[in-house]
Automatic annotation (TrEMBL), chains A, B, C, D:
Protein name as catalogued: DNA-binding transcriptional regulator, AcrR family
Signal peptide annotation: none
Entry-linked Pfam families: TetR_C_43, TetR_N
Native source organism of the sequence: Paractinoplanes atraurantiacus
Coiled coil location: none
Length: 197, 197, 197, 197
DNA sequence: TATGAATGAGTGTTCATTCAT
DNA sequence: CATGAATGAACACTCATTCAT
């Protein structure tokens, strides 16, 4: 939870930092156009406190993203540890989506060209490499289409996140259906040469 | 009160409206954070003119959406006219995405809970109903999974749009791969009972 | 008064620009730490109007300075036209100070290393060159110390401005005494070899 | 209530006060827009400590000024002790400027109408009185213009400080030229009836 | 007592919207 | 009608000052 680059020694400071990240997660997870005053109010502190912990709005978002990406790295690691590649892939997608359902700030796992901090870039690379391992394993085991790579998996996540965001208010489980379809489409035995030109 | 000299004004007004929508499409299709001054400049008119035609920024976006949804309705209608259901479905998705590639304002075809105007709501319903027809036909013909409905298709579009938006700058064709996967996953013969819990 | 780089075509816009410059002159001429809200209030307009005319606080100050420096150029030109060099020098100093008494924004005639716009830089060079002419003429005519140059004159102005600013509230004419002393010190016939080590 | 264990604290407090003043002098002497956090960091203490010693930013500046004015009083006293009035005057100006070159906080010796503390006011009066003695002596000895008084001398200092501040970065000795001119202008024998109207 | 975290009024600046020309 | 100047609420961010640790 606490970033390596910042070390809030005092207890109350650490608590405020956590509160701020929690508040920010709650707000940015569901809306865009969140002001820092909103975050401060939600966290029950003054604006100045936001700036003490995060010198810039960008920095707050980076910290938020870092936290989520760190959790995502753990998920990828556990998924890569599965001996069955297909199982690993399924687990990676499902657990990542569970993270998004709970926190709603996963957008950033995929590199969309937006500015990001080194920490995030590194985590992304780690995830990409782990996913690549999972993909390779599943392909060797003959359960995954040969024409997929790590980027496809990341984009799938992005797609599912979009679905979740759109349906969260009315039927937050809906994305699972899409995930099922995608998984079916990814099975090696289901590949259709003529699906698309 | 109305005389001959005021007639050409109507033409001008219509032309300005078209110009504004074109300008807005060009800008909102690729960026966010577009100001109305930007739109006015792109259209070659003053800000006041924007407000004459669209009392509110929201109204402009609604009009933009309406245009796109209208085009989407046409696509859906043509797709529904195909005798082969699977073909119709494929066509609907591919053509809709082509629209998004070109115009970039398809976000709104799916109801995401955001406020929208009656005309958009109506068009959405029309599309939903047409897609439902396509889906039913394909299912009757035994080519489409039985557990899919029109909403799934719309959400698929939403997902693909997210992929396109993220990859537009670097590899704008990437979404086609995701589409292929989804199509494979949707084929009746490929349905896996155990894909997901 | 109106800058060449900006062309306020409308009458009311031009009036507001003039009002803003007037208000800014009144405020910046006597105080530091003036906010743009202060300027807006003093001018009787909204803050937005300040930004329409001057995209940046710096720009407003630049415009203010430009105006004053332009007036200063005229003074220098007239002073350089005097056939008597000493007379020209006296005139330059007295008239420049009159400008400062009235407007209070002359600080900028001397290059103090702060950022400034090209317009100001150019005007400064023009003034420096004219003052150099005056100095040379007076030195040729044997009325001015040989060891003075245009920079000395500018620094003298700076010094006198400091005196004026400090005494404006209590005895705004006091600077004239300092000016008299400096003029006496500049007369060729009064040069003391041993005045300072 | 007071015991042996609190005694060393006094020493610490005194040392911190000195450190703070030193740090403040270093920062305010060369820049404007110095924050109290800057001062605290430069002094190696926390902000809270600044406020323990100086309840207000203004108070810190007052203390700074007091220190400098005290040094200036010493200079004035030594200068007044010279038997030769002109020598005393020269010494006063040169030494005062040396102070400004080194510390850069002399602004305050002259009453510019800004708020100031009683101790500063008193020191100013002392200086004024000493300078008045020097001036009177030199006038009696026939080396100084009859129309000068202590205020003129203080304003001269102010003027020279302005010159120094403007030229410090590029040619910090430049002010000496202005000083030479002023001294020449102040010599009784160089008085020109017609220097200024 | 020293520390530095917390505070919030205040800055410069933007932009949707209104209104005089 | 079209224009673009005027408006002011709102934003990201700063900093003198207070207060919990």
């Amino acid at each position: 939870m606490s970033n390596a680059s910042t070390l809030p020694t005092r207890k109350d400071a650490a608590r405020n930092r956590a509160r701020l990240l929690k508040a920010a997660l709650e707000l940015f997870g569901t809306q865009t156009d969140v002001t820092l005053k909103d975050v401060a109010r939600q966290a029950g502190v003054g604006v100045g406190t936001v700036y003490r912990h995060f010198p810039t709005k960008e920095d707050l978002l980076d910290a938020l993203t870092s936290d989520q990406v760190t959790l995502a790295v753990d998920i990828a690691r556990e998924a890569a540890a599965e001996s069955d590649g297909w199982q690993g892939l399924t687990r990676f997608l499902e657990e990542s989506m569970r993270l998004q359902v709970e926190n709603g700030c996963l957008r950033c796992v995929v590199d969309t060209g937006e500015p990001f901090s080194p920490v995030i870039a590194e985590a992304r690379e780690t995830i990409a490499s782990l996913v690549q391992q999972i993909v390779a394993k599943a392909q060797q085991q003959g359960t995954l289409n040969a024409d997929l790579d790590a980027t496809d998996i990341n984009l799938m996540l992005l797609a599912l996140v979009a679905v979740l965001d759109a349906t969260r208010a009315t039927s937050p489980d809906r994305y699972r259906h899409q995930l099922a379809l995608l998984l079916d489409g990814m099975r090696a035995e289901n590949r259709q040469a003529a699906s698309i030109a």
